[in-house]
What we know:
By secondary structure, the chain is α/β, with parallel strands linked by helices. The protein has a single domain (16-263), classed as Alpha-Beta Barrel (TIM Barrel). The chain contains 9 helices and 8 strands. The chain is globular, with a radius of gyration of 17 Å. It starts with 15 loop residues before the first strand and ends with a helix. It comes from Chromobacterium phragmitis. A divalent metal cation 2 binds at residues 141, 164. A divalent metal cation 1 binds at residues 20, 22, 105, 214. Belongs to the metallo-dependent hydrolases superfamily. TatD-type hydrolase family. This is DNAase.
Amino acid sequence: MEAVTRFDPLPAEDCLIDSHCHLDAPELAADVDGVAARARAAGVGQLLVPAVTAGAFADVLAMRERYGCWIALGLHPIYLDRHLDDHLGLLDAALAAHAPAAVGEIGLDFYLPELDPARQEALLAEQLKLARKHGLPAVLHVRRSVDRVLKHLREQKVECGIAHAFNGSEQQAQAFIRQGFKLGFGGAMTYSGSRRIRALAASLPLSSLVLETDAPDIRPEYARDMPNEPFQLARFVELLAELRGMEVAPLRRALRDNTLAALALS
């Protein structure tokens, strides 16, 4: 029997970190061991696996047990119809019992019209209170909702975490940075038409950036017919180095340090 690939508790300076990877997703279920092995072979030393529902907590914890990955626990806004009244209590207990790296994936999604904005905001506010209660960073979903998410961060005084798949303006990016958050960039950078994202990746302070895949989602332009995987970070970091006009090695070190800082691990 082949040994199971394990990630590093604290990745080395030259390792890549996937700051957002749904390793428990059904699209990856048939070959999760292979996904982990390909990631390590590509130089990925660690990844963060966020939960999206209370029902997924056990699966995410199992991923940590098997692969040694970091995890986050939270209630994702897209799955609003699955979140019951007692799930905030379950999340509170799980945060206390299992010491995740962050509360997540949480946030707001104003792209899908069927999701009740008021209920989303109430859920986000309560989860940010839990992040503050447990002293944990927040991993945020901010689709078409950046300003409202920022409002809740200020109100709840949450000042550490990651704005995942950032796609806002430079002004909004600076607001997140002032709030103490890092900004996640990944597969969207690979699309030649993503001019604003590429411009932000090139011009924002290096200290504000982290890399992510959102695997199996946000597939890169060159691999749109297959689920995204964390091994793609090796190409993402090369693209980011090209956009910023810098060498890959110091960029890898900076991104690693940024991710540790975003998760209060350094």
